[in-house]
Design a protein that fits this description.
Layout lengths: L11 H33 L4 H24 L1
Helix pairs in contact: 1-2
């Protein structure tokens, strides 16, 4: 499938690579946020609720979308 407006530069492989890289980046960001939360908790004994909220929100969205796609695909 070629996208008519963008020409031959964009095809299925490009879209697949973009999907995979975005998913990987999201997972790495969640791991980094949760890792930084745990580090601050263990090292400084401070609950960084902003990092906890970011990590849990991203993880919840990822799981919810996995469940949604499982039942609707």
């Amino acid at each position: 499938m070629k996208i008519p407006i963008l020409g031959i530069a964009i095809d299925e492989r490009f879209l697949t690579h973009r999907l995979r890289s975005t998913s990987t980046a999201g997972i790495v960001a969640v791991c980094l946020a949760m890792g930084l939360f745990v580090f601050r908790l263990c090292h400084d004994h401070v609950w960084s609720l902003d990092l906890l909220a970011v990590g849990l929100t991203a993880a919840a969205v990822k799981v919810a979308l996995m469940i949604w796609y499982r039942f609707t695909d």
